[in-house]
Structure to design on (639 residues):
């Protein structure tokens, strides 16, 4: 039997705009999937459709091979965690976590004692046993989100869905919760899908990253795959900081009008003396905090600005350059994509190494 | 204590605004009520006691509180329902229905009373069907309840509507993902959130019904011991130039009303406080 979640040609239209368009996706049981994309890419809509909170206009959703497309939220047995927690304000933490057990039909409802045991077991899991009698307003954002997860897990869902779970939290708490959620997933091994617009979060936590844009899937793969072998320009530019070169700056790529070259700041090599394939550039800004130094340089030939990242020790060998210094940059690993204007998408054309890039010039 | 709160105040003008509040409330409410109680003391204690414990007066107290209470309950239930429909659904003529809700406020109560009497009379539009069933509406307690329900309708709708509007759907969605059916979602999630507002609307409708005169006198038939409300008795006393007696009845009515409203508001405050922990 086919396990996990299968989406088949799933489409959702809001007004004239397709929020989600013809999505095909396989999520194996126990997988930890990130739906990654900018706002408006349809990732949250897709998640809500899996949960049954949003209906489908076209396509089918299967859970373990069974067609769930017409099933209600209640029948799907999914655990859903909301961005803003959605804890019931008028109930204590205990009552919140117990809610899913207390609303079960009498036949299946556990006894009071069993509910109590289950709730405390979950509170132990999220390390918040001591707040059982408090109200949600008395907890911090991070604690509330942990309680929201405990509440979702109380009904023993087959699938756990999280909608930007850490979106409303500050950076430090977010970092802690990422590790914590990974641990929980490892412990329970429950199929988990979460939505995020933070590429770092997706790459750090997920087993599988689904990159979305304009209601479509751009690429599906492991974090390494999507980062190192991006399917197109969108994926490449969305997954990290990039410099973009167009037209004359691309030197000898044919079809210059349609081509766009991308290179990540840490892939640019700097040196004090001109190399065979290097381009002269002037430093216009230096930001030296932490283990890497960030700088913005201006190409002397085309006046394009680009960002560079160098390690601190390399920065020292470059005489700790400051604003106005003249350096030589080599664009190894520049990737050239050819844009298909009509679709607003792009396809990889060639990956030009530094040598080829300059040799052609 | 005053010093403490003074230090933290961002907007100035506490003294001035509080002064206005006290003067305004005194002029509009406290002084007239004080005069009423003063007037009630112009008669002797024996007279006072005899007036307010008169069989006919006691019957009217009971009737007024009973019918007002029933009307407020009916309004709490159906007002919530109307608010629900107006907030949650889109339909043709919604704006019109929304405007219709306020009409009982705008209409002269006597006009409403006469209209209701005509419709619910045994030979009226609706009354004739009830008459066939042997139920009389106009000139009975039911008629009074209908009139009081009519004039109190907007209170609950207008109290509940904004609260329902601001209610975030994510709580209902969360409850649904946890396996709650729609009944459980309403009673465990939505109802606790709007209950303080329903209580507020209930208290307002109840208070309004206690003092209502214009619409009731036409539909009630004003039969002593049966369908005579307190405001009518007061008017009767006034027409007999028995000012002291009228003031005595009014004063007792006022004290009871105040106690009841105070209790409802206290309850409302407690539930609201519990709910608005966030």
């Amino acid at each position: 039997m086919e396990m996990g979640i299968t989406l088949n040609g799933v489409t959702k239209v809001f007004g004239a705009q397709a929020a989600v368009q013809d999505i095909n996706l396989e999520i194996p049981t126990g997988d930890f999937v990130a739906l990654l994309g900018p706002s408006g890419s349809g990732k949250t809509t897709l998640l809500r459709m899996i949960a049954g909170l949003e209906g489908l206009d076209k396509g089918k959703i299967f859970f373990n091979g069974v067609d769930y497309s017409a099933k209600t939220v209640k029948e799907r047995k999914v655990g859903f965690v909301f961005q803003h927690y959605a804890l019931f304000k008028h109930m204590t933490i205990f009552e919140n976590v117990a809610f899913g057990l207390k609303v079960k039909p009498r036949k299946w409802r556990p006894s009071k004692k069993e509910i109590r045991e289950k709730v405390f077991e979950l509170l132990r899991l999220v390390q918040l046993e001591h707040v059982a009698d408090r109200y949600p307003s008395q907890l911090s954002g991070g604690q509330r989100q942990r309680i929201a997860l405990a509440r979702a897990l109380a009904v023993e869902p087959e699938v756990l869905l999280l909608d930007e779970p850490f979106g409303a939290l500050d950076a430090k708490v977010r970092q802690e919760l990422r590790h914590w959620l990974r641990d929980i997933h490892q412990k329970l091994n429950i199929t988990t899908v979460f939505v995020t617009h933070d590429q770092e979060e997706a790459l750090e936590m997920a087993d599988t990253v689904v990159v979305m844009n304009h209601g479509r899937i751009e690429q599906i793969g492991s974090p390494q795959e999507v980062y190192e072998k991006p399917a197109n320009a969108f994926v490449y530019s969305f997954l990290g900081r990039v410099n973009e070169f167009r037209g004359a700056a691309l030197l000898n790529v044919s079809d210059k009008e349609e081509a766009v070259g991308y290179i990540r700041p840490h892939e640019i090599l700097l040196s004090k003396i001109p190399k065979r394939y290097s381009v002269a550039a002037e430093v216009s800004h230096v930001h030296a905090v932490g283990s890497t130094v960030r700088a913005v340089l201006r190409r002397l030939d085309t006046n394009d600005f680009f960002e560079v990242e160098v390690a601190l020790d390399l920065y020292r060998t470059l005489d700790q350059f400051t604003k106005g210094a003249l350096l030589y940059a080599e664009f190894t690993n520049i990737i050239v994509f050819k844009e298909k204007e009509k679709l607003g998408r792009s396809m990889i054309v060639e990956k030009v190494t530094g040598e080829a890039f300059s040799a052609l010039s | 204590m005053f010093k403490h709160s003074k230090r933290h105040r961002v907007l100035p003008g506490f003294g001035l605004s509080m002064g206005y509040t006290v003067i305004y409330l005194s002029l509009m409410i406290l002084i007239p009520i004080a005069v009423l109680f003063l007037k009630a003391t112009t008669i002797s204690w024996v007279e006072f006691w005899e007036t307010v414990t008169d069989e006919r007066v006691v019957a009217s107290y009971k009737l007024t509180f009973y019918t007002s209470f029933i009307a407020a309950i009916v309004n709490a239930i159906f007002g919530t329902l109307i608010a629900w429909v107006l907030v949650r659904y889109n339909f043709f003529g919604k704006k019109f229905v929304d405007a219709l809700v306020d009409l009982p406020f705008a209409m002269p109560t006597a006009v409403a009373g006469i209209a209701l009497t005509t419709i619910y009379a045994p030979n009226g539009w609706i009354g004739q069907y009830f008459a066939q069933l042997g139920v009389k509406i106009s000139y009975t307690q039911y008629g009074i309840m209908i009139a009081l329900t009519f004039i109190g309708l907007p209170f609950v709708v207008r109290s509940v509507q904004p609260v329902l509007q601001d209610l975030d759907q994510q709580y209902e969605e969360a409850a649904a993902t946890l396996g709650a059916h729609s009944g459980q979602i309403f009673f465990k999630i939505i109802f606790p959130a709007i209950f303080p507002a329903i209580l507020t609307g209930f208290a307002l409708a109840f208070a309004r019904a206690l003092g209502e005169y214009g619409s009731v006198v036409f539909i009630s038939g004003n039969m002593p011991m049966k369908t005579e409300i307190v405001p009518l008795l007061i008017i009767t006393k006034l027409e007999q130039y028995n000012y002291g007696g009228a003031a005595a009845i009014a004063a007792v009515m006022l004290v009871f009303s105040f106690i009841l409203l105070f209790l409802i508001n206290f309850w409302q405050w407690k539930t609201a406080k519990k709910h608005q922990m966030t």
In short: Residues 42-277 of chain B form a domain with the MetI-like fold fold (CATH 1.10.3720.10). The CA atoms of residues 64 and 189 of chain B lie 35 Å apart.
